[in-house]
Structure formats: C-alpha cells, structure tokens
Amino acid sequence: MSVLGISMPPDLPVPADHLVGRIVHVPAGSCRYRDGALVLLVRRVRLDISQWYGGQWVWLEGDELSGNGFRLAWRQALVHVSVCDLRALAGRRAT
User: Fold this and answer.
1) Interatomic CA distance for residues 89 and 83, integer angstroms
2) 60 φ, ψ to 5°?
3) What is the strand order of the sheet 31-32 is part of?
4) Residue pLDDT, tens place only, 26-49
C-alpha cells in the first residue's frame, strides 16, 4: 500500500502562515513536475490540496523570481516539506 493514498496534512517544519511572504529556494529534485531549481516568493500555502502526498510534499503558490530578484511569473509548485524550514529561510522575507 502506498502512503500517498492516505490523507494526511503536510509535515511542515513551521506553521504554513509563516511561509507566506518568504522567499523559498527550492533545489533541483525537491520540486515535483519541474527539472531545475526554483526561487519562489510564497503567496499561498495550499494545505487543502497537499493532504494527498503522504505528509512529505506541499503545494506552494507565488511569484517565481530570477537570480536578480525580478518577478518572472506566477507559479504553483509541489515542493518537499524540507525546503520550508525557516532556519534556512532566515532573512529571506520579501518587502
């Protein structure tokens, strides 16, 4: 039996609302349905649709940023919960 078939909330290292407004650097391999890395200014954490990934993945929505911090496009990204650790995000709050 696959754990992906069990409904459970993502096991985030911080409350979801603490991620909103933060810049998350997602390394290659930590984002499903995407080959490369991603820099995302988080606008919304989709707990409602993240419950079907065994607690290890969470849907984030926001602005994809370039290396220079310019907004490129709005994105949805299914990322591993480990990239949501606020210790790694310290000081990366957008204004």
Assistant:
1) 9
2) -115, 145
3) 23-26, 38-46, 57-65, 71-80, 31-32
4) 999 999 999 999 999 999 999 999
